Amino acid sequence: MLALSAVVNGILYGGVLALLVLGLNLMFGVVQIIHFFYGQLLMVGLYLIYVFTIWCHIPLILSCLLTVGVLLLINTLVHVLVVKRLLTADLINQFLALASVMLILENLCQAIFGTDIKGIPINLPVMNIGELYFTTSNLIAFVGSLVFAALFYIFLNKTYIGLAIRAVAQDKEVAGFMGINIYNIYIVTMALGGGLVGIVAAFFTPIYSVYPHFGGSFTLISFIIVVLGGMGNLLGGFIAAFIIGVITILVSTFSNTEIGLIVSYLIFLFVILIRPQGILGAKVSR
After folding, report:
1. Distance between CA 180 and CA 241 in Å, rounded?
2. Residue 125, exposed/middle/buried by CB under 10 A (0-12, 13-18, 19+)?
3. What separation in angstroms does the CA of 193 have from each of 176, 217, 238?
4. Residues of the chain by 3-state class (helix, strand, coil), percent to 5
5. Which member of 56, 85, 110, 211 has the greatest number of CB atoms within 10 A?
6. By C-alpha distance, which of 205, 208, 185 is closest to 31?
7. pLDDT tens readout for residues 191-232
8. Strand ranges, E, within 176-223
9. So what CATH class is 2-274?
10. What DSSP state is assigned to residue 133?
């Protein structure tokens, strides 16, 4: 029963990770740039919810909605000021510039909030079915993540903007010939990526407290899931998120969190050595 509980909680955790990496995968697939401060944007979202709720006394749900809007604007602003100028730059220049944004966000949060852990006290019960136990907060996050992932799938496949995003991701040159404004699609994609991070921050609020270096681990785990599933492949990232979620929680249950993460990293390394394009990524001929 302990192993079964670990698998169930791993599936719940994987559902949240699937929504987390959806934005990262989308931005890479369309803009073709790796979002190195993705986890730090999540950290900023958690801090914003804390500020709106605790400092400004705004209801939690409204605070979450405001945070989605603010992160949407922040990610769009970073694209206009930084990413736009790096689209044709060398990978090392992209890495250094976006890593600088990452450090700016971390140090800015530390300067404002200090090094203390901040969180909103939300007491949700632990649920059980017989001897199977799981947390209500993880269940809410799991269900919410699946709902938003489904809505996003409908958006990409049933709306003009969604179809334009898919067209740009598949072939920018052909999409341009069809009259699609590539730069506007970049802006929309980055805005959506920021908004998705805000949604994840809302679901993370009952689960995690936040501190200035909170985002680093989620940047790493998001990048691992995206590469494991196949960079730019939304379905592959979705599957990889559940694989990493289940393995991390299952191993952590019988050892500790660090060992769980180490096993996940080893699986990632093995897949990269055997299948560099990831689970569902297309093989690129050289």
Report:
1. 32
2. exposed
3. 22, 18, 15
4. 75, 5, 20
5. 211
6. 185
7. 999 999 999 999 999 988 999 989 888 888 888 888 888 877
8. none
9. mainly alpha
10. E
